Records
---
Amino acid sequence: MTIFSRIIAGEIPCYKVAENDEFFAFLDINPVNWGHTLVVPKREEDYIFSLSDEELSRMMIFAKRVAKALKDTIDCRKVGVAVIGLEVPHAHIHLVPMQTEGDMNFSHKISDPDPERMKAIAKAASEAFKA
């Protein structure tokens, strides 16, 4: 069971942003920018391009809704998208609110992100997602 599956199952706490029957979105605990969110399928699959075309399409549509909620919540020009997928063997999409392309630099993380700020971002994004 991957760490993401354990988060989805509620075994590990997270800052949940959104979920449906197939997908789950939560704030990255090592964000490159405030609001950095991971979108994952609830079904474990290591490689995003191993998902069926239909499942990948639904995942991207879900991610689009999450990105809109983030943009409505965080002051940003756009929400960037990245698929890296080497650090956890569970397909995932990174959504990163950004002002500049430099905000997508994954080698620069926010050190020791404030839990209260993370909680507030997740709550606001979750409410925007439901609207």
---
Amino acid sequence: MEKNTYIPAERQKKIMEYIEANTSAQIHELAEKFHVSEATVRRDLDDLDQQGALRRTHGGAIKVDRSTSYESMYSEKISLMLDEKHRIADAAAKLVHPGDTVMIDSGTTTFYIAQALSHHENITIITNDLYIAYQTPLHPSSTLVVTGGTRRQGRQELVGTVTEGFIRDTHVDVAFIGVDGIDLTGGATNANFAEVGVKRLMLRSAARGVIVADHTKFGRVALARICDLTDAGMILTDSGLEGEMLARLKKLGVQIELV
């Protein structure tokens, strides 16, 4: 057995990512994957259950069913599915060329896209995400524009009529849009109404709209519909998406890229 190198907090985060991606997991399965004893896994699962992060079952745990309006805190989401988000971000950055104007939606996957664009020359980034605006370094030849608008309570994104008016009068080469759920019948969905108008307008403002989401978002339906899956120019996700969902998306004619 390979020696475990995770500290407890890091291991618990990895366990959560695994259960989110696979819906459920058994104790022996987690012990083998993370190279720890079954007793250690039981303690981790008990801790996570007490935090409300998952639900303990006999012999393992399952992910918590969330309401369609449930939103994780940004500080929680920023470190989930980190490898996948970085791969998506690197692939997204390759779609941007010198001279392009780029719309970047609020979110954690989109945050990493902005970071991946930090060395691109002569591009213009437009975003409604204050965290992205503050934390993104730029090449000296590039420009970053903030939409303006009203900051959502407890969040870092700008929404409302000012934001929507700005985007409505803007035309960009590519827009990267984050979502909370992707479903064959439900389409691309979001957990709150406030952002939906902004996301729709971003897609319409772009010559090429790209929905970015890690594979755990697939098969989920959130509160508010953003668009049909075929309305986006592309869906960019990680290679964890497989099986029937992937086959049916392709059959629908959805352009989907796995990285």
---
Amino acid sequence: MFCDRNVPCFFLGANSAQGFVSRFDALYDPQSDWRAVILKGGPGSGKSTLMKSVAGSLLEQGEETELIYCSSDPASLDAVVFPRIRFCIADGTAPHVLEPQYPGACESLLDPGGCWDSDALFLQRKEIFSLCATIAQQHRRAGRYLNAAGSLLGENRRLALESLDTAALESYAKRLGRRSFPKRRSQRGTEKPRFLSGFTPDGCICFWNTVSCYAKTVTAVEDEYGAAAPILLSALRDSALAAGYDVIACYCPLFPFDKLDALLIPELELAFLTVNRFLKPEIDLARTVHTRRFLKESIAAHRQKMRFGRRAAAELIGEAVASLRQARRIHDSLEAIYQKAMDFDRLTRMTGALTNRILERL
């Protein structure tokens, strides 16, 4: 990882059961006076290097910083966010294409690709075509494995829901919400969606240090079957928002739109985390909510089938990771071609100019 400091880190792109999913729509809000620099350029053009340099300079100034990593290569950054000054820099190229909504007024484009020798790249176009096609093939293969894993875990979730005392769980969630979130203001809070974890070429990575950046009190929600925790976390999110608190809603990378894995409430320094065989927090936990108490005895009839589903899903996820690893290896070869065509002195000047522009806002 680029930064070993106590800095919040997330993913905004997920290798999921639905293929690659981007939540870059939640990166910044033009209506709230944010400004963004969107980087355009190919592989190896220095986009991540530029963002690391700018982030390093602002971290040295003590500026509040959030790092968004690439789930296809966790050594690279997809974006850097400076919340206090409402400024961000993002890689706007595929697969998380980002285009200006209000060009000039809120966003500006910066093209590190303008620092390369296009004639040199043209001469190697056939190799570039071949490498790009092979990378895409490996990503499609990873997507198929994750889709199959999602189907198995989704079936486990469905079976668990049949045996879940939903009314009792929702009643408990309301009581917990009232205790945890005292009414702050009449205005509803805002939700910031993020991925705390991701399936990457290095396996499933979870940014546990990020939880510690925001929360002093961490509650684990133990849920082996993936049915109860999303209901509880969704109810807590709604309670926190209704009480006027801003939340960071961390979605499951396998089910990136409808299944919460974690909930962070920075103002109250609270966090609620799903815990199971796939998610094992490496931080101190204040307490644990055991959701099995909301399961009826009928769950016993499904346990053998569900154990099989978990084991098979784990194998499929392992195959997906292997495909992502192969895609990264080939992508490294593609980057090497582009790097040879880059004028990095020009990129350094571009990075310095952007850094100075941001420092002027401090």
